[in-house]
Amino acid sequence: MTNGTATADTSPSVADAASKPLVSLKGISKTFSNGTVALQNMTLDIQQGQFISLLGPSGCGKSTALRIIAGLGDPTSGNIEWPTSGYDATGKAMPEISFVFQEPTLMPWATVFGNVWLPLRLKGISKKDARERVEEALDMVGLHNFANAYPRELSGGMKMRVSIARALVTRPKLLLMDEPFAALDEITRHKLNDDLLRLWETFGWTVLFVTHSVYESVYLSNRIVVMAARPGRVVNDMAVPAPYPRDDTFRTSSVYNDFCRDASSALHAAMGANDHL
What we know:
alpha/beta, Rossmann fold, 9 strands
């Protein structure tokens, strides 16, 4: 198992990443009250500007790891550290983080504008003062003409765009995404993959993206962290040093197929790793 910085690719956001990681998971373990060991000794450095996919079977702790990083749950043991920001190891003070869940979780009674405004509203920012940032976020995801629409009037892909805009309106340094496109059709999923990469390249966020899809992980990421289940742990950490921007030409290339084959082999090895425990 290799934990650490992946081989740098030609993406400027990765090439310019600081030597210190944005966030470090140090021996993170999580055991739930029913005795289920969701994570065991997970150690992982996430560099600034990287696009990392957590790839693994159901039950391997991918979502649990995201929630712990976001401060939505506490580890049973281990620490979360934020070296570049000077935050303490408790993780109670952390840089701006946004979380995109698998379901859009929109408020049905609120307009698109109101849903995107929500995180700023919770910080006490008025609608008037938030307007410019909300409109900017809607522009980013191509929904500037739907500010006054309601969730019931939107397609599944558009609802997910609203959810992403709501995450982006806080201008996060770290974007956590828990299988956000899993329920979408393939065409919509490909389009949102392309849009997400465009935004990542433009704004230089750090992204930690949970997926079950080998193909999605290779297309999006410059680094894939493969996890095994029961107990959840990292078993492979592979670089995807293909250049950005990526498009349909990359999707149909032999290079892409080679990376997909490598990632698939790593995933199959992870799924069989418990046989050797």
